[in-house]
């Protein structure tokens, strides 16, 4: 009579059950032990590339069209206000207004990119694709914001090239650090504001309302086409409460070496520090809003 309860195992070989247990211990951690420790780099990179490829797939609309629109602004305001060799801050009007238009295009497109991500998911019912992957709230926010900044940089370079070819515009870098810093701060500010808007909005009309009644007025009334010294003292005080003013004037300072922020370079440096602090506060508020799950997970 043969005992089948414990089949014989050839010498030098482990039993199948022992080998499977050893493999399982190597492949799967104990319950409660996190599989991903630290930053989920692969997940963050995947989200970032997904967002970048989304706007690159329609780059005619997301990159080239803003360049054409911004160039039309330059043409119209140069013809209307820049005749007879008019100069502002010691340079021709076209050279004065070009940096402001570049960073304004960057900011508006950063907002457009980040405000679309979560909102489209909520409307189309695909937001689960963003919430289910093993991404923390910080990683989710970072992926969306970084992609929006990438689009802003692409638009900025495209607009700058188009304007550099326009007659009467001279784009020289007097202070490169200011160009980089204020450009990034402006794009980051609008990317965070766009993400907060997409959390709050329930339909595209809500997003359009923020664009038309908040972003557009703050952009156009920020000193893009004029210096605030020409305004009455009350309106100058209002302009100095507008964060867009510091971004546009600081960005212009990087090209021209002159700005209407203050009479000294230290005023521009203080504005640069202030924009950094403002973005940190805005980032914290946006993170807490995203972490709460308000209008996303409820």
From TrEMBL:
Identify one Pfam family in the record: ABC2_membrane
**Stretches assigned to the ABC transmembrane type-2 domain:** 57-293
- PANTHER family in the record: INNER MEMBRANE TRANSPORT PERMEASE YADH-RELATED, TRANSPORT PERMEASE PROTEIN
Question: GO molecular-function annotation terms?
Answer: ABC-type transporter activity
Q: Which UniProt keywords apply?
A: Cell membrane, Membrane, Transmembrane, Transmembrane helix, Transport
Q: Which protein, by its recorded name, is this?
A: Transport permease protein
Membrane topology of this protein:
Multi-pass membrane protein
What family does this chain come from, according to its entry?
Belongs to the ABC-2 integral membrane protein family.
Q: Identify one Gene Ontology CC term for this UniProt entry.
A: ATP-binding cassette (ABC) transporter complex
> Matching InterPro entries, A to Z?
ABC-2_transport_permease, ABC2_TM, ABC2_TM_bact-type, ABC_2_transport
Q: What is its main location?
A: membrane
Taxon lineage: Bacteria, Pseudomonadati, Pseudomonadota, Alphaproteobacteria, Sphingomonadales
Where does it reside?
Cell inner membrane; Membrane
Q: Which residues cross the membrane?
A: 63-81, 140-166, 178-201, 207-228, 267-287
């Amino acid at each position: 009579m043969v005992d089948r309860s414990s089949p014989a195992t050839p010498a030098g070989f482990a039993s199948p059950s022992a080998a499977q247990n050893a493999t399982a211990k190597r492949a799967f951690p104990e319950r409660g032990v996190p599989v991903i420790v630290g930053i989920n780099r692969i997940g963050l990179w995947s989200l970032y590339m997904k967002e970048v490829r989304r706007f690159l797939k329609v780059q005619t609309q997301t990159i080239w069209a803003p360049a054409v629109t911004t160039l039309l602004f330059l043409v119209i305001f140069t013809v209307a206000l820049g005749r007879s060799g008019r100069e502002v801050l010691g340079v021709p009007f076209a050279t004065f207004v070009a940096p402001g238009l570049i960073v304004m295009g960057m900011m508006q497109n950063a907002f457009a990119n980040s405000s679309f991500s979560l909102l489209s998911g909520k409307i189309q019912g695909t937001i689960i694709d963003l919430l289910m992957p093993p991404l923390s709230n910080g990683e989710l926010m970072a992926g969306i914001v970084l992609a929006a900044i990438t689009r802003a940089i692409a638009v900025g370079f495209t607009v700058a090239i188009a304007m550099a070819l326009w007659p009467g515009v001279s784009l020289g870098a007097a202070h490169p650090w200011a160009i980089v810093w204020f450009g990034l701060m402006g794009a980051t500010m609008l990317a965070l504001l766009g993400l907060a808007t997409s959390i709050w909005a329930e339909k595209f009309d809500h997003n359009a309302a923020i664009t038309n009644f908040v972003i557009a007025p703050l952009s156009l009334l920020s000193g893009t086409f004029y210096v605030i010294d020409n305004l009455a003292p009350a309106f100058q005080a209002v302009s100095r409460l507008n964060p867009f003013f510091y971004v546009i004037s600081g960005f212009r300072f990087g090209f021209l070496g002159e700005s209407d922020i203050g009479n000294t370079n230290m005023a521009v440096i203080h504005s640069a520090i202030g924009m950094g602090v403002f973005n940190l506060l805005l980032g914290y508020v946006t993170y807490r809003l995203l972490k709460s799950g308000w209008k996303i997970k409820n």
